[in-house]
Amino acid sequence: MNSRDISMAGIGEVRDDYVPASDYFSQEFAELENELLWPRVWQMACREQDIPEVGDFYTYDIVDESIIVVRTAPDEVKAFFNVCPHRGNRLTADCGHVQRFRCSFHGWQFNLDGTPNQVVDRTDWGDKLPDEDITLSPVKVGRWAGWIYINMDPDCEPFETFLGPAIAAHEPLQMDGLRYHWKKSAVVPCNWKTVLGMFNEAYHLQATHSQMLPYWDDYTASYARGRHSMFRYEDTLPPGLPSKRLGKSPEDVDIRQGLADYIKDMDKTLKTSEAVLMVDAVDRLVEEVPREAEPLEVLMKLAQFTMEDLAAKGIDGPVLTPEQIAEVGSDWHIFPNHIMISSANAVLAYRARPNGHDPDSAIWDVYSLLRYPKGKEPEVEQEWCNDLADEDAWPLVLRQDFANMAGIQKGMKSRGFKGARTNPKQEIPVSHLHRMLREFMGV
After folding, report:
1. Are residues 82 and 127 in the same domain?
2. What is the rounded distance in angstroms from the CA atom of residue 423 to the CA atom of residue 426?
């Protein structure tokens, strides 16, 4: 039976409070994605920083396909299917720099624009091998805020239409000015949608990351934004004050110390986001701001101290209005598989991909971006570590998330589990992804 003929009608419909269990482990559903999603959807391949010079390339793999993303001119990027038109050999792996692409099998060579440069003994073909037959097959490219997206479908929707509201929400952040702080990848023991769903909601914070509750009020509201989605903290106490779940009176808590504890703890246990840039400024709160100061005054002072510290280091970031901060929120899920936790000077981002055809395995890419003084950006290497409990490779907060992955994937196959009962207030990004997947694939 062709995967196009597979009916999903008996599995159940996606609701705000329900996702069918089989979406996460069904081989049939995975094959539908392989046929109807990945070859047709815009997906983040890399950052501009990954290919800074002409001739730099990045190899993006997704299921059975492999795409070469290459800088062909200082401000021009192209992409091609990573396959030699002679006998089908892959031309590249990972990333690197070339003058021309060369096939290791028979030595055919191709220019950066995909046109053939050298065919060994080409005269053997006579007039049967025109350039257009052996030019590398192009893939569409979209560029936004420092990211490079690809789409294998020549008839796909325009890139700007695809991103839709995400562009307007993130434009004030000037994210093209961010550079890698670190980047890591791993093979994880669950479906790509399982791992993605662990990072596009904060409902799990109170159980998985309970160490944050003394300085973070954790209730969120989440929203669909076209095909994408986002969540933000609403009706909560200011950062530095404890979660209302703890039943403590905010008046009894020193928000100055709470903010200092929060930023230092995030720097230690996540090693990313704005907290990394605030550790040198946060001690001034306790030293220079009076204990009786109102929470808003303390937060404004922290913003002031941070901007002064960043300016002294030569970091010039954007100043956001309250409305812009609200629209960026805490977390955006860019359909289908890219998540960004963004702030004025930092982004923590995630990408999930199928690991071949196995619905119980995924490739998980995590990277931290920061704003640096010009000329002082660090050289950052891609790291791989499949030991998800490795304390040297993975910070505490991520290890806490990793610890749940295998149990979730196995548990969803239980006869006692009918489907995910997603929180219709805080977990809209989870259910919305599945609704949009089915809509996009037409199943």
Report:
1. yes
2. 5
> Do 113 and 150 reside in the same domain of the chain?
yes
Q: Is 204 exposed, middle or buried (CB count within 10 Å of its CB: 0-12, 13-18, 19+)?
A: middle
Query: 127-138 as b/e, with b when 16 or more CB fall inside 10 Å?
Result: eebeeeebbbee
218/71 Cα distance (integer angstroms): 42
Place of tokens 């709160």: 285
Query: What's the token pair of residue 112?
Result: 């950066």
d(CA 41, CA 152): 8
CATH of the domain at 127: 2.102.10.10
Q: Cβ contacts of residue 303 below 8 Å, gap of 6+?
A: none
Q: What is the per-residue burial (b if ≥16 Cβ within 10 Å, else e) of 241-265?
A: bbbeeeeeeeeebebbebbbbbbeb
Domain boundary pick from 102, 124, 156: 156
Specify the pLDDT at position 262. 95
Give me the domain span that covers residue 142: 43-156
User: Residue 274: its pLDDT value, please?
Assistant: 86
Query: How far apart, in whole angstroms, are the C-alpha atoms of residue 2 and residue 36?
Result: 12
CA distance 377 to 111: 31
66 plus 180 within the same structural domain? no
206 and 347 assigned to the same domain? yes
User: Does 70 share its domain with 21?
Assistant: no
> Is 60 buried (19+), middle (13-18) or exposed (0-12) by CB count in 10 A?
buried
Q: Which residues have C-beta within 8 Å of that of residue 10, sequence separation ≥ 6?
A: none
The amino acid present at 117, given as its one-letter code, is: N
- Both structure tokens of 168: 């307007």
Query: Average pLDDT by consecutive 10-residue portion of the chain (443 residues)?
Result: 37 91 97 98 98 98 98 98 98 98 98 98 97 98 98 98 97 96 98 97 98 97 98 96 96 95 95 89 93 95 94 93 94 98 96 98 98 94 97 97 98 96 98 98 95
Q: What is the pLDDT of residue 12?
A: 80
Same domain, 222 and 353: yes
Integer angstrom CA distances of residue 10 from 29, 158, 360, 443: 13, 34, 22, 12
pLDDT at 11: 58
Amino acid found at 6: I
